[in-house]
């Protein structure tokens, strides 16, 4: 079986996927707040247990102190707080976006295809603006597709035409 080898200073850290499970909680909370959904006691209990499990993992991480740092000399420094904040922001934004989109579809009665095109256009414009602001000169010098290799193109094709679909 394939194994992942981490420096011992990183081996005790929970993967971000553990914390990202809080997206379920944020989605449920936004659903209650924005859509007026009512949750059963069992659902609230399940959400509380999910939160408690993630909190226990994070509390253990906060208490643990690595014996030594075995990161490569050229590795960027790592901050537990920044990583946790990034995952929390991702949970909040993802949960909000999903519930808001559902609310938008339920209240306006518009076509889902039209909404997807509108959201895609805004997302594309914001992404292009961010790219120009951050890497505009490099993109102008090297081209937009610089660095694309067959693996990247395979991902693009799969995302566009959905060669691998979840049903």
Automatic annotation (TrEMBL):
Statement: the UniProt record of this protein carries the keyword Repeat: no
A Pfam family? Nuc_sug_transp
List the Gene3D superfamilies hit by this protein, alphabetically: 1.10.3730.20
Q: Which InterPro entries match?
A: EmrE-like (IPR037185), Nuc_sug_transpt (IPR007271)
Q: Which cellular component, as a GO term, is one annotated location?
A: Golgi membrane
The answer to keyword Cytoplasm applying to this record is: no
Q: Which GO terms describe its molecular function?
A: pyrimidine nucleotide-sugar transmembrane transporter activity
The record's keywords, sorted A to Z, are:
Membrane, Sugar transport, Transmembrane, Transmembrane helix, Transport
Per UniProt, subcellular location reads as:
Golgi apparatus membrane
Membrane spanning segments where?
A: 18-35, 42-59, 79-101, 113-132, 138-157
Task: State the membrane topology.
Answer: Multi-pass membrane protein
Q: What is its main location?
A: Golgi
Which SUPFAM superfamilies has this protein been placed in? Multidrug resistance efflux transporter EmrE
Q: Which family does it belong to?
A: Belongs to the nucleotide-sugar transporter family. SLC35A subfamily.
State the NCBIfam families in the record: nst
Which PANTHER family does the protein's record reference? NUCLEOTIDE-SUGAR TRANSMEMBRANE TRANSPORTER
| Record protein name field | UDP-galactose transporter
